[in-house]
Design goal:
The chain has four helices and 15 strands. The strands form four sheets. It has a five-stranded antiparallel beta sheet. It has a four-stranded antiparallel beta sheet with strand order 2-9-7-4, with no helix packed on it. Helix content is 38%, strand content 28%. The protein is elongated, with a radius of gyration of 39 Å. It is an alpha+beta fold. The longest helix has 36 residues.
């Protein structure tokens, strides 16, 4: 009797399951092509990123921008004391004026000597010497003019301007410090021109190149970004057997900056 009741309960449960299965929705099986994807970790970098350094020695007398400030191309960012450079320019200009006066005298002497030579009052050697002195005076003026130009150029190095529009990423000096040739002053980058650099195994390079499509995930801003351009460096790392690829981000991308993680 107990066995019969158990069997009846099992048959009822099976009928209930069959009834539920009959109510499930169905769909036809279809063949579809899907893209094969490969995930690689990378880092964001700026296409334009540079460190501006001093080209002359002198005390820093003005710092117009700080970290995070936006700078337009051609704006003055740092000024170095130019008094020593100005004195060098003044000395060079004085030497040029002196040489030009000597040149006028040498030219006049050469013209007089030519006239005297025509009248046989001086020898040919005297004429040759006058001509030689005149040419030497000309060369001295040319050399001093070049030196004066160099001094003026060095004075212009006291005013450092932004080579392109961008954001100041780092300031390496303080007001009143001494600058020296090659000393870093400021580092900046252009936020409108950013890209992601990642590495791909060599077996994935050809498919990625053929596809020409990629998306970048930036977890810090919780956003997926369509890549506008892919470029593959024409060299591979022999140790890891990988190739670096650059993924250009659209100009309108916001919230990314050099060094953040991307995938």
């Amino acid at each position: 009797m107990i066995l019969s009741r158990t069997l009846a309960a099992s048959l009822a449960a099976m009928l209930s399951l069959n009834a539920g299965a009959a109510e499930l929705a169905s769909a036809p099986v279809e063949y579809r092509e899907v893209d094969l994807t490969y995930s690689s970790e990378g880092v964001v970098e700026a296409v334009k990123q540079s460190t501006v350094s001093a080209q002359i020695s002198g005390r820093i007398v003005e710092l117009r921008f700080d970290v995070g400030d936006y700078v337009k191309k051609g704006e003055v960012i740092v000024r170095i004391d130019e008094r020593a450079a100005s004195q060098a320019v003044a000395a060079s200009e004085a030497q040029v004026r002196e040489a030009e006066a000597a040149l006028r005298n040498a030219r006049a002497a050469f013209e007089r000597t030519k006239q005297l030579r025509a009248q046989n009052f001086v020898s040919q050697a005297g004429l040759d010497k006058a001509e030689s002195d005149y040419k030497a005076a000309q060369e001295r003026v040319v050399a001093l003019l070049a030196g004066a130009g160099q001094a003026a150029t060095e004075r212009s190095f006291a005013t450092i301007v932004a080579p392109y529009s961008g954001v100041v990423a780092a300031r390496h000096v303080e007001l009143g410090e001494m600058a020296a040739p090659g000393k870093p002053l400021m580092t900046g980058f252009d936020p409108a021109d950013m890209r992601v650099v990642a590495t791909l195994p060599q077996g994935q390079v050809a498919p990625a190149r053929a596809s020409g499509k990629a998306k970048v995930e930036v977890p810090s801003i919780n956003q997926w970004i369509e890549v506008s351009e892919l470029s593959f460096l024409p060299a591979a790392d022999p140790r890891t057997q990988t190739t670096r690829v650059r993924l250009q981000l659209p100009a309108a991308t916001r919230g990314v900056y050099p060094g953040i993680f991307a995938r």
